[in-house]
Design a protein that fits this description.
alpha+beta, four-stranded mixed β-sheet, four-stranded antiparallel β-sheet, 48% helix
Length: 203
Amino acid sequence: MREWLLTLQYYQCLLVALLTASLSYAQNDKKTFQISGNVPDGISKIYIYKSNGLSAREMLDRTTVADGRFAISGKRPAYDLLSIGSGSMSIQFFNDGEPLTMDFVNDSLSASPLNEKFYRYNKEDDRFSDEFYRLYISRKNTKDEAKKIELEQQIAANQEASNEHARAIIRDNLDNVIAAYYLDGVNDFIDYEELKSTIDSTA
C-alpha cells in the first residue's frame, strides 16, 4: 500500500511539473495585476491574498472602498494563485497580467479567458458544496431511518458528480495551470491507472 501511494504521489508531482514547465520562464518575472470592481454596502476594505493550496492564504495588500468601488494593483510572479475580497466574499484568480474587474454586487467577472474559465469552474464547485451542505443538514436532522438512507445515497451521488467534474476539468485543461490547481484536490478519489493515463496523454 505504501509503495502504491508513493507511486501515485510521484505521478501527481510529475503532472504538475509537466503543466507548469511551459510557464517556468515567466515565474522568474513578475506581472502586474490590476484589479477593480464594486462591492455591496457596508464593505470598507478589500484585501488581496496569496493562495497557498486549497485553503491557506496570506495577506499581501489592501485598499479602501470609496463609494462602493475599489481598485488595487501590484506585481507578483506570473500565474501566482491570488484571491481578492473581504471576509467570506472573495474570488481566486491567476496573475496572468490581464486586468480583472469583479462585480461583487451582481456576482460577475470580466477578465482574461483563463480567469473567466477558472471563475466559472469555481462557481460550479460552489453548487456542489452547497448541495452537499443541504443534504448533510437534512441527514443530520431527520429521524426517519429510510430517509437517512435516501439522503446518504444522494450525498454519495453528489460527491461522485463533484469528483467527475474535477476529472473533466483536468482533462480539458492539460495545457494550462487550471489542471494543476484541480489536481491538488483529487488525491482522495483518483486512482493510479487513471492518473497514469492522464500523464501519458501529455507526452
